[in-house]
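name: query_chain
kind: protein
chains: 1
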Amino acid sequence: QVQLVESGGGLVQAGGYLRLSCAASRSIFSFNAMGWYRQAPGKQRELVAAIPSSGRTNYADSVKGRFTISRDNKSTVYLQMNNLKPEDTANYYCNARDYWGNYWGQGTLVTVSS
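structure:
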């Protein structure tokens, strides 16, 4: 069973930064892709950033130039979030996909105050 555990959320002022981490229960290279999604109150969950096994990253237009997804050589994926805006406030979820399923973490809350 795949487990994804997020950490690093919190309260930050606009213009600040946070770094989210997602620790997987197995090698991240065993997945076809990993990514970060977010869901704000009353809104649908949306893709923020993704990194497939090829390593070629992609981002939502709203975070390009501010957020960076990266990974280590083992089992952790990161989301560096700079110049945070109040509209970035949401629960952030780690996601992993392989041939057998689509897996989610429990989420970590990011709150950006104006």
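note: The longest strand covers residues 90-98.
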